Amino acid sequence: MSFSQLKRRSPLIPLGGIVASAHDVLPPQPTHQVSVVVASLKRDNTSWIREQLPRSWKPSIYVVDDPKADLTVPLNKGREAMVYLTYIIANYDALPPVSLFIHASRFAWHNDNPDYDSLASLLSLNIPYILERGYANLRCVWVLGCPAELRPLADVNPVWEDYRKSHPPNKHEVTTKEVYKQAFGELLPGETVPEVVGVSCCAQFAVSKEGIRRRRKEDYVRWRNWLIETPLVDEVSGRVLEYMWHIMFGQKAVFCPSAEECYCGLYGMCNLRQCSERGCEGQYTLPKVATLPQGWPLIGWEGEERNYSGPAL
């Protein structure tokens, strides 16, 4: 369905037999099987995933720092990338129609919601939209990552042009943009290194079964081996994958759809005010710091009480 068709259906958007206003939460259709793949640490509270998401959705909560957990990873490296690859490898032959790849925290600075609430966003997801397109970034706003986060051919630092021949790099010596070109060649050999890479951060997305199977299972195994073996430190190797997932799933190197179209199609919010291709007023504000204040979402940045009206806490 085109964006213009979605707009014409506003302000009432029927999905799965349920009619809701364009600004209401639109429950996903229960007939669609969805797996929720979560990268977590032992200290994370993931109860909201099990208790507040639709019962038809299956949580796959990986605990990266607990080798005795029901779901874990071969090595705690590469941040969420190790979890995502491990899930795909284990489930490749029996994937559900849609897999959601998310972080463990319900409230986090990068969640594309006025309250930075992942739950509110997930409850609004339009699953047929994901099935139709095969891939969707869960962030519609362009800041950070769009329209051009990396310029691999121009960003190469000669010192790190071949990072494997140098002493093991650390986070103070190398950045993602400096090693992306070489990493791209190792991960996607034979494919042309793009001049520009753009996708909204921060490695949370939805992919259809067909989107994942654009690549062979052997590719995902090879990519996980790369993640295990690379001398790049955790945050750099993870960020390399962060800006490569969309390409792996068959999208163009610059994946920056109009924010207005994204909010309408992916979340059913088709009448947001003052929208541009980069964002919509009041939907997302980039915070000055990455840590939300204690007591959020009931307590604000200055210690004031907030008029929170989102899903139950």
Automatic annotation (TrEMBL):
InterPro entries registered for this protein in UniProt: DUF3431 (IPR021838)
Source organism per UniProt: Cladorrhinum samala
Domain of life of the organism encoding this protein: Eukaryota
Protein name: Uncharacterized protein
